[in-house]
Design goal:
Rossmann fold, 10 helices, binds adenosine-5'-triphosphate, alpha/beta, 4-stranded antiparallel beta sheet, 6-stranded mixed beta sheet
């Protein structure tokens, strides 16, 4: 098998006396959509922040695209940061910038890119996420929640990343908007060959788009596998989650 694009080994995160992760391992394979689930407070967001460098683990090794991010090498981090995009829950857009200007922010890191080309690229990403041409000139406060998420995704895709991190992408959307967003993520991931690290509580999203699921429990990645494999895992939380009424509804069952 190919080397994983994200490889975590022995990760430990701790806040005061609270140990959130202990000896956590995880591999994310190229081109897959990995859904990260777990009970509230099991450290899904902390895990995502650990990979993207917003949280420094007490111990362990983080490798992304073959680069060791725990060695403190700024060159390695710069290479990797140009190859990932991050979408936070509400899109995390700059409120004083238009959608187009928001999408242009990461593009400003590209040396020698003329302003007109930057603008054209931003418009291309805005179209890619299904926003109309008029959306580029709007401010985040003028958008619906679903449109803000799409704008956040456009910004995450600005630099044509290999990996996209999505934190609860469908939270706060109505079921139709959430299903549309699921289709968008799935379509873009397949069309662009993206690797997607997706933190979610949304069972519909897991069933609709994820190739594999990673369950956080007991301070580590307890198990990874396909949804079908999850249904056979003999662990109380995993069993309840994948056999509960919401899971049955997400599968289309009774
Ligand atoms: N900066 C911080 N300082 C102290 N404690 C923190 C910090 N960040 C997270 N925690 C704690 O770490 C634990 C895991 O938090 P995290 O936000 O990753 O959970 P989660 O699995 O994403 O939860 P949810 O599903 O509710 O969003 C929580 O108990 C939280 O209070």
């Amino acid at each position: 098998m190919e080397d994983p694009v994200i490889r975590l080994r022995g990760i430990r995160n701790q806040f005061g006396s609270q140990v959130v992760h202990d000896d956590l391992d995880l591999d994310v394979q190229r081109g897959e959509i990995l859904g990260v689930v777990g009970g509230s407070g099991t450290g899904k967001s902390v895990l995502m922040k650990t990979i993207i460098g917003l949280q420094t683990p007490r111990a362990g090794k983080i490798e992304v695209l073959g680069h060791d991010l725990t060695g403190g090498d700024p060159a390695a981090r710069a290479v990797v940061e140009d190859n990932w995009g991050v979408m936070f829950q509400d899109g995390a857009l700059f409120s004083s910038l238009t959608v187009r200007e928001n999408v242009e922010v990461p593009l400003k890191r590209v040396p020698g890119l003329a302003p007109e080309a930057r603008r054209a690229l931003a418009d291309l990403k805005i179209a890619m996420v299904g926003l109309g041409p008029e959306a580029g000139g709007k401010y985040p406060s003028e958008l619906s929640g679903g449109m803000r998420k799409r704008a956040g995704l456009a910004r995450a895709l600005a630099l044509d990343p290999e990996i996209v991190f999505l934190d609860e992408p469908t939270a706060g959307l109505d079921p139709i908007g959430a299903a549309e967003f699921d289709r968008l993520i799935h379509g873009l991931s397949r069309a662009l060959g993206l690797t997607v690290f997706l933190v979610t509580h949304d069972l519909d999203t897991l069933y609709a788009v994820c190739d594999r699921v990673a369950v956080l429990a007991e301070r580590r990645v307890l198990v990874t596998g396909t949804i079908e494999e999850m249904a056979r895992v003999d662990h109380p939380w995993v069993h309840d989650y994948f056999h509960g009424p919401r899971a049955r509804a997400a599968q289309g069952g009774a």
